[in-house]
Amino acid sequence: MMDDLLIVTTGGTIDKIYFDDKSDYQIGEPQIGMILRELGVGFRFSVIPILRKDSLHITDADRELVRATIAAQPTRHVLVTHGTDSMVATGMVLRSIPDKTIVLTGALSPARFRGSDAEFNIGCAVGAVQSLPTGVYIAMNGRVWDPAKVRKNVEANRFEAAE
To answer: What percent of the chain is modeled with pLDDT above 70?
Structure first.
């Protein structure tokens, strides 16, 4: 059973704010806390915003910062919001953390957009982090994946089994 949920945010599309037709954007405040409060969830959570980057710009040093931050927290259940382009790479780095259930999720369109997959992916990730054994997982497109066995299909704009 999950006592508390630690949420670590790194930016990505889920938190993007666009100023014109999908070209000029910035990574805004993390949206997940507001989403969970609006949905009236029945568990305690805390949010640690670490980065505000498009995941194409996340470096190995950034991944190490995310890993070290999660490892230093006593919380066993961790949800990471992350951009989709390099989510798998970060998931692989986080696998070195023992005794925690860590689920990464994000969105293929910003949470602020009507019809965004953000709330659905967050809901899937919250269910996964509560019910899965220790380890690292990716929750996207209604599925839960082992980071070593999934890839983002950029053309189809979805996650799928890695070859």
So the answer is: 98
Mean pLDDT of the chain: 94
Put simply, whether the predicted model's pTM sits higher than 0.85 gets the answer yes
Facing residues of 5 across strands?
45, 77
Q: Kindly report the number of other CB atoms within 10 A of residue 74's CB atom.
A: 7
Sketch out the chain's domains with CATH numbers.
4-161 (3.40.50.1170)
Beta strands in 22-124 (DSSP E): 25-27, 44-53, 77-81, 101-105
The CA distance from 147 to 80, in Å, is 13
* Three-state secondary-structure class, residue 147: helix
User: How does pLDDT run across 76-87, given as a tens digit for each residue?
Assistant: 999 999 999 999
Helices then strands, each counted (H, E), the chain: 4, 10
How many C-beta atoms surround the C-beta of residue 127 within 10 A? 13
Cβ 87 vs Cβ 120: under 8 Å: no
